[in-house]
Sequence to fold (247 residues):
Amino acid sequence: MSNSTAPGYEDRAGGLKTFFAKTKRFSDEPAREHVMPVQLRWAAVLSVLLGCSTRVAVPDNPRDYWRTGNNVHVRGPWPAISPSRNVDEVIDQLCPAIMELPRTRDRDYGQEYCGAIYSLGDGTYYASMPSPLSEPVPVGPSTRKTCIPPRYVADERGRPVVLADFHSHPWAPSPMTPADRIAATQLWSIRIQFDRVCTVMKLVPYLDSSRPGEVYVRSKKQWRLVGIIRPEDKQRGLITAADREYP
Fold:
């Protein structure tokens, strides 16, 4: 995947570039690339058939995150995030907490973290522990960063049902890239992403619907629709600016 002016700007009709240009969020930092590993679609289908239940066996040696094969497991809840019946209140806490972790702001030397937002069926939402697990990457500075979205959440209090995954980028501005948005990488109903200055984005992919996917930016405790992903563009994650074609 080649670098561009900033991650994810090769979008139809301006897409995210239109929004960030209007809000003057561009900087003089060099272009950087974020890579989200592609997950097998059959696994996503299986999770739907199972009702998105993610209760799994917990290892004898408790850890905050671990891996079995291609799947990442995370433990919950994360004590740094206060649970809430309003999922947006959980989302608003994520970036400040993640930015306290090692190397989350270090650009080419930085580290991405992935996690999940889930409930236990009681209407309250929790955040999992964040995981830095990724595919092998070269040692040293890199313009390619990745972490693997968790497939399973372990919470000894009950059976987690995952609503969303979240991940960070160690640069700014750094919105969702095509790899973040393509259909093949979507595991759950919502994807949350934020950069090192806590610009928070939300993707609602609507994978199994003729409804366009929707891309939002969080601003003043509200979600602002900035782009859509038309059904024919979901496989490639191409964004069309919302103010051009979408009410």
Summary: The chain has five helices and 13 strands. The CA atoms of residues 48 and 188 lie 9 Å apart. The two ends are 32 Å apart (CA to CA).
